[in-house]
Design goal:
Number of strands: 16
Oligomer: single chain
CATH class of the largest domain: Alpha Beta
Strand order of the largest sheet: 3-4-2-1-5-6-7-8
Structural class: alpha/beta
CATH topology of the largest domain: Rossmann fold
CATH architecture of the largest domain: 3-Layer(aba) Sandwich
Radius of gyration: 21 Å
Order of helices and strands: EHEHEEHHEHEHEEEEHEEHEHHEEHEH
Number of domains: 2
Helix content: 25-40%
Largest sheet: 8 strands, mixed
Strand content: 15-25%
Shape: globular
């Protein structure tokens, strides 16, 4: 089976997200291609994590058994945010699709199955249908389109083509309300790499209390401005947030540069607590199910501090109201005094996730109604 993944991530990047683990499993079934789009000179201005791979742009490379291509254009279409500019936005996206990379064209023709990750990838659905109408098409809803602030044009295209896809794979049931329809929707949560335990020692910390935050999604630096003042006895480690130190941080905040996924694991396992500092106005409820950082904290039995809206039914999570110092103090104190409990539920392995994506209708646990 030949698979094609279209996404705004790159398989070679240090930061690992669900698409990396999915592609690693797909390659066990046959030739797998990872096409990274929405990258240009504009990306380098916005601190795109793929900037470190800029020297590899527009070159086919096989990395860990997966064919990779980072498509770099002079500019790429973006969300222009204002309705009055929609005609311009539509023109830019239409032109982007009308002149696709020859590599994408060739990989589409070769594919037996094409995966479109949430983001701009669905704009290439019509191209796939035209070049390879027999290819199976699967949408992976890593995030809701409103949450990641996708352009209006992309939303309109997705609303038109969603029902034509073979499967819409939602990582949380709570995502269903954002789908154009639910007839071809299946619930397939994120998997987990249980081998992380093998790479989580020794501790990187000195003596004392240490709190860790990993990742950049909806990152809220103001949490650490407040928490570092309220808890001077705690050393806060911020890993891969995509920005430098905030001027309001106290001396007990350490901002680490982007790390390889495995390098972050000892920081998580040996911390006293984990923090998921999502911004208040943009926190979707489905993150209670889909946050990979919270899944990692849970696996390593870390009490976690996160916005109240994503606590869900996890007793190991302690919620706060973003921007509210009193609630941050309460959540921090509760987490620091909480026991390290066994995980509430056992997640799927990534191999089990991909099995379900390939044939979701054959599994009893993928329906919208549990």
């Amino acid at each position: 089976m030949r698979s094609l993944v279209i996404t705004a991530h790159d398989y070679r990047s240090r930061r690992k997200v669900n698409m990396h683990f999915i592609a690693a499993e797909l390659k066990k079934y046959g030739e797998t291609s990872f096409f990274s789009c929405q990258y240009s000179f504009l990306s380098q201005l916005k601190s795109d994590p793929r900037s470190a791979l800029n020297h590899l742009a527009n070159k086919v490379e096989v990395h860990d058994g997966v064919r990779c291509f980072l498509w770099k254009t002079f500019i790429h279409p973006i969300n222009l945010r204002k309705n009055i500019l929609f005609p311009v936005e539509k023109f830019l996206f239409s032109r982007y699709v009308a002149f696709p990379s020859p590599v994408l064209v060739e990989w589409i023709k070769q594919a037996d199955i094409v995966f479109f990750e949430s983001g701009i990838a669905p704009i290439f659905f019509d191209l796939v249908q035209r070049l390879n109408p027999l290819a199976k098409t699967v949408y992976i809803a890593s995030d809701d389109l409103d949450t990641i602030n996708v352009a209006s044009y992309v939303k309109s295209v997705f609303a038109r083509v969603a029902f034509k896809m073979d499967a819409l794979c939602l990582t949380s049931r709570l995502m269903a309300e954002g789908m154009p329809g639910v007839e071809n929707c299946y619930v397939i949560p994120h998997g987990f790499d249980f081998s992380v335990e093998e790479h989580a020692d020794p501790s990187p910390y000195d003596a004392g209390l240490h709190a860790v935050s990993v990742g950049s999604m909806l990152f809220d630096p103001l949490f650490f401005v407040m928490a570092s003042r309220l808890f001077p006895e705690v050393t806060f480690h911020i890993i891969g947030c995509g920005r430098g130190a905030h001027p309001g941080y106290e001396k007990n905040v350490i901002v680490h540069e982007e790390m390889r996924h495995q390098t972050t694991l000892p920081y998580i396992k040996h911390a006293a607590i984990g923090i998921a500092p999502y911004r208040s106005e943009e926190v979707p409820r489905y993150l209670s199910d889909t946050s990979m950082k919270l899944m990692q904290y849970d696996f390593f039995k870390l009490p976690a501090v996160c916005p109240a809206s994503v606590v869900g039914d996890y007793t190991s999570r302690f919620g706060y109201i973003p921007g509210n110092a009193d609630s941050i103090a309460h959540a921090m104190r509760a987490a620091l005094s909480a026991p390290r409990l066994a995980p509430k539920r056992t997640p799927l392995r990534w191999s089990e996730v991909v099995e379900r994506m390939l044939a979701p209708e054959t599994f009893s646990d993928t329906g919208l109604v549990p």
